[in-house]
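DM from R.C. (forwarded with permission)

"hey, sorry to bug you on a friday — could you get me a structure for this? deadline for the figure draft is monday and I only need the backbone to look sensible"
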Amino acid sequence: MLYFVEHVARELDIACILRHLLATRYDINIHVASIHFDLHSALCKMRPRLVITPFFYFASDANLQYLLAGAAGARLVNLAFEQLLSRGNRAFKRPQDAVVRHHVLHLASGPAFRDFLCEHGVLPSNVRIVGSLPLGLYRTPYRRHADGRRRALAQRFGLSEDQPWIFFPENYSAAFLSDRDIEFRIRQGFDRGDAYDYRRFARRSFATVMPWCWQAARQGTAELILRPRPATARAALLGACREVTGAAPPPNLHCIKEGSVREWNLASDIVLSSYSSTVVEAAVAGKPAYLLVPERFPEYMHSDWLDHAPQLTSADDLMALVRDPGRAQPAVALADWAATQLAGHDDPFAVAAEVISHAYWGRAPAPPRPPGRSWSATISRRIRCHVRALTSRRRQGHYQYEHDHFDAATVGQTTAQWAALLDDRGPVSAAAGPHPQLANDAPAGPDPSGSGPATAGPGVRFLPSAGRAIRSLKVAFVVSARLWGGGESQVALLADGLRLRGHRCRFFARRASLCADQLRNEGFLVDTFLGTGRDPVSVWKVRRHLYQWQPDVLHLNDSHAITCGGLAAQGLGIPARIAARRSIFPIRSGHRYRRYADRVICVAQAVAERCGQAGIPDDSIRIVYDGTPAVAYPTPIRRQVRSELQIADHQPVLLTVAWLHASKGHRYLLAALAEVVARFPQTILLLAGAGSEQEALQHQAAAQGLGEHVRFLGFRTDVGQLIQAADLFVMPSLSEGLCSSLIDAMRGGCPIVTTTVGGIAELIGTGDLGSAPLAWTVPERNPAALAAAIVAALADPHERATRATRAKQRALVQFTVDQMVEGTLQVYHELLEAGSSPTHDQSSSIR
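My reply, with the result:
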């Protein structure tokens, strides 16, 4: 495998982490090379199966042309390091040809960049969301790589450790563009007027801000570190600074290009920038971060993160900060935005390594290899290859890449440093991160850096909440669902959590189903079977894969999966067989659970009782509540979602998220809506979900004259954003196991009106003596009571806010993803430690 790096400071650490993970976890060797200096020589020496690039906008790029020819037949993976694009750059850096759209696997940090790629023709199946790799460096254990760097940087560059450090990574790149550079951008889609205006704006801002920096440094109260952007030469930047300031740098101003942005962010006290997304990283690291904005950004420079970044707009603002650095506060709003849009709750390095390994080994669908034949197939082309290899450093070694040279020894040394850190300090974990939205929800466990479990042998992983060393597990999930509902969302969250803790997960899912597609989009290895998997061919296929992979745990996620997976696993000696039970529907055959599962995990006490009624032994039943991830949404999201749905800010909005099935009680909600509309005429009901009842519900709404008040949204992946836009979450269900969408509403701070069927009563605590109500509760199949509760809630904003706050606190304490994952792991290990023999301990039969 070939991995090309563009800028050392930005990418080499990431390359070496992935190199280590792919080698140790997936037995894949990677050669890391510079795309500017080593492209041709690397292609002369290797015939890679897969190539990783730092960018891939269009195949006509000079470097990428040679790559496509020299690595003919290789799969292509684009890490896309520039994903926070301005409106102007979105046209310039869009996917521009068939190779990029159809033959490259793109790794996206979040849904926004995935949607951008798909809007410009990239197939959705060619995009995987892995989280932000640069932000992943600020999570534990990766951030420990920078421990002690402040002292080392101070000694290396003559900085005072006692004074505050103000780090200024500039991004005035447009100020240094030539007419030729601008014309190139225009040819690639940048608006002509905007392109030239961008340079004028950058030069004006540069000419204003640099004197501010000179004045701030002369105060002598702080060390100001000015860092050129990767493609700007230090000499060029200092020369331009001298032109606009008329003076040499003051003693306390240091122009330093060495070292990574992460090192400087973590070592500094305050981070400033003109436009660089480095301030996003600084905010995630918990640092005060500001943009220096002497004049308002033009519209074509707008990017979503700018709305959340604090700004300094005058020399006086900067002087006040320099004189009193203690007044600076962490950029919490920007960190919240980053946690929502970029970070996710996974370890991005583990996810990226798994996705890349699947593409390398062909274990998951990947884009087809680009067409073309090797350009070194003839003697003349082979000679041309070697000539270009010998001259590439001289031709491409332009001064702006002055710090982007590296060799194999540097790669080996850096990889060894990361290997020592990751192997010695336990598993990859997001716990104890610098920002709460970038950390796990679980309480901190024993420090893995201490004695005991951290010293366990090869293959051992440390689980903080378990307080012991355990080996990495292989978990096979069988899911027969055709669509994507709460149960499928929960099993994906479970697998995410297991993957985050160093375990390996694999799915068997229904062919040509939304469920299988969603799991692949999450980066999981997915094998498929026909229908519900109960036919002999499907059972044989699943059995063959189980025999080859030899999992430690077989997790059967639904009733049909129990038949398929249970039959397939017969006689294979899988140590732990787990069946999940999520609904309170009567169990037709308790025999299947008794025969094919060692433990049955129920999502609520009500579900466990139904299992007991079906003859499943109490000592085989365990209760593990569902959980949902903590997500922080920026304040404008409510207004933004309502605008997209063409709903005014003052209109009452009701939201229901559930499959359109008779058991969800939508028809009773529509029957109640007429009375609600009579009291609040501008009410809108949003129904998110798809299903067999949609046509009947649409006819019912039309017959009641409610067509203008009901919106059928279909299947949605942005449920969290819809919750932020709603005034009331309504769940009229007739049958529920626990209802994970209610947990989403609770964590989202949305007031709730709900029935109390199944496990919902446990969820909202209606049985807790002396507890204040968290929601308005109504009996099922009662439109009058449902309407009265909705009207009462809409009429009392204060009570809505009070109950929503209580519900959110309960969800944050009792229904987290980490508690769900750890609870499930305890069930796994209970079986593994007992040799998969059920423990007939009646004293702890159901818990």
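R.C.: lifesaver. Residues 373-379, 392-399, 425-470, 836-847 have pLDDT under 50 and may be disordered.
me: no worries. The chain has four domains: 2-131+344-406, 149-340, 472-627+819-844, 637-815.
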